[in-house]
Amino acid sequence: MYLAGFMGSGKSTIGPILANAIGYSFIDLDSVIESQTGCTIEELFRKEGEEKFRERERSALRSASKSSLLVIALGGGALTDAASLAIVRETGIVVYLRVPLDELIGRLHGRHGRPLLTTEKGEALSPQALRERVTALFAARESIYMQSEVIVDTEGRTVGLTVDHIVKKLSAYLPQ
User: Which pTM value belongs to this model?
Assistant: First the structure.
């Protein structure tokens, strides 16, 4: 099972709690890549560029997708890679944590370590530039996320209520 959503949607927070609730293990794909390379995602983007990062991400995803009873938190852009999207579609179901655009912008303001939300020098974007960048990324990715088997609106829900809602929606997909 895969957790998808825009950066800042809560995948890394909700993922381990969801996994525990359904008796699965949890991995965060970005954390796996960081462990494998000894670099942060932001450093990898700066050193190697997005294309090389997506190759690493795809490789880590291919490996992780061979395990069962696993909740995998995908990076925000993982599903924009056609090969990664194919792996996900062939090997599991996708839960999309849907967060309204303005809430995402608020969550991401002042956060570090998001390579697509910094300048080429790694500096924070201005509030206006952040809004423009997040809006553009959201527009480019939303249609991909909306193809998920399970879509959960997180607005106004606590983490616990969000997990409960996901578990209820997953009941049709999980073995009884």
Answer: 0.88
Give, for all 176 residues of the chain, the pLDDT tens digit: 999 998 888 999 999 999 999 999 999 999 999 999 999 888 888 889 889 999 999 999 999 999 999 999 998 889 999 999 999 999 999 999 999 988 888 887 766 666 666 666 767 777 888 888 889 988 999 999 999 999 999 988 899 999 999 999 998 887 76
Distance CA 166, CA 150 (A): 8
Angle 142-147-153 from CA coordinates, rounded to 5°:
65
Q: What is 2-163's CATH topology?
A: Rossmann fold (3.40.50)
Can you give the residue ranges of every domain in the chain? Answer: 2-163
Of 77, 16, 89, the C-alpha closest to 49 is 77
Among candidate residues 106, 119, 150, 115, the one with its CA nearest the CA of residue 4: 150
